[in-house]
Amino acid sequence: MIKAMRTAASGMEAQQMNVDNIANNLANVNTTGFKKGRIEFQDILYQKLRLAGTASSSESKVPVNIELGYGVRPSATARNFNQGNMTSTENPLDLCIEGQGFFRVVMPDGSYAYTRDGALKISDDGRIVTSDGFIIDPEITIPAEAESISISMDGIVSVMMPGESDPTDIGQIELTKFINPQGLDAKGHNLFTESASSGTPISGTPSEEGFGRIVQGYLELSNVDVINEMVNMIVAQRSYEINSKAIQTSDDMAAIVNQLRR
After folding, report:
1. CA 109 vs CA 75, 135, 199, 258: distances in Å
2. What is the bridge-based pairing of β-strands 112-115 and 148-151?
3. Hey, which residues does 171 pair with through a beta bridge?
4. Are both 172 and 184 inside the same structural domain?
5. Nearest Cα to 203, choosing from 213, 211, 195, 212?
């Protein structure tokens, strides 16, 4: 009975993590460029009570094992990088990546981070930055006297200057991709950083194969499906209840044993 309690307790802990992950997905349903996560689980080691192949008589062998599992444990948090829906904002500095790439930003310590959040802004010195003030790399500075900003699908940034009839190119936005984006480290603030399992960042021009293209005046919404997440939450809740029932049943059985008298 004690083994059953511990096994069921591992199931309750697993489903609690599952609900925590679902809650995080739902909390970020309106977060720009958010990618939903999924907890993956695996069973724990088994106790072999009888091995397959053991002789059961002089002429026969046991065909299958007798084994008992010890519950479940989390094995990975898989992040779904499928494209989210696009929404029009008509803001010239709102950029949506239609494809697999990331914007590269420079952190305060000089390191790089990567984001799908294209809600960009202009700093007090004219540089294009994220909502937290992190500079987009390569650095692009918008002239103070610029009348309008245009960003092409391949990342070329142009501005219309007073008295001129043709736009002036002032920079090129680059995108970065990874061979294993699920291996990226999530740092919050819509940022990811390179890890040992993500692979080396590969930078290139938007619209090149594998990088995606830039769509100006749009933002990428979260790829969280609210209905699907609510169904997953109900399933996790029922699994949690079943595991708690297994603990209660084991406790009742132990109580019966303790009450036995000669």
Report:
1. 32, 12, 22, 63
2. unpaired
3. 157
4. yes
5. 211
Q: Which domain holds residue 32?
A: 2-80+224-258
Statement to judge: residues 169 and 250 lie in one domain = no
Domain count, the chain: 2
Name 236's Cβ contacts closer than 8 Å, sequence gap at least 6.
15, 18, 19, 22
Rounded Cα gap, residues 157 and 25, in angstroms: 34
Residues 75 and 101 occupy one common structural domain: no
Question: Which amino acid appears at position 157 of this protein?
Answer: V
**What is the pTM assigned to this prediction?**
0.85
Quick one: how far is CA 47 from the chain centroid?
35
Looking at the fold, whether 98 and 30 belong to one and the same domain comes out as: no
Contact between 181 and 100 under an 8 Å Cβ cutoff? The reply is: yes
Query: Is the domain of 139 the same as that of 69?
Result: no
Q: Residues 192-242: pLDDT tens digits?
A: 999 999 999 999 999 888 899 999 999 999 999 999 999 999 999 999 999
User: Given the structure tokens 């696009």, which residue do they identify?
Assistant: 86
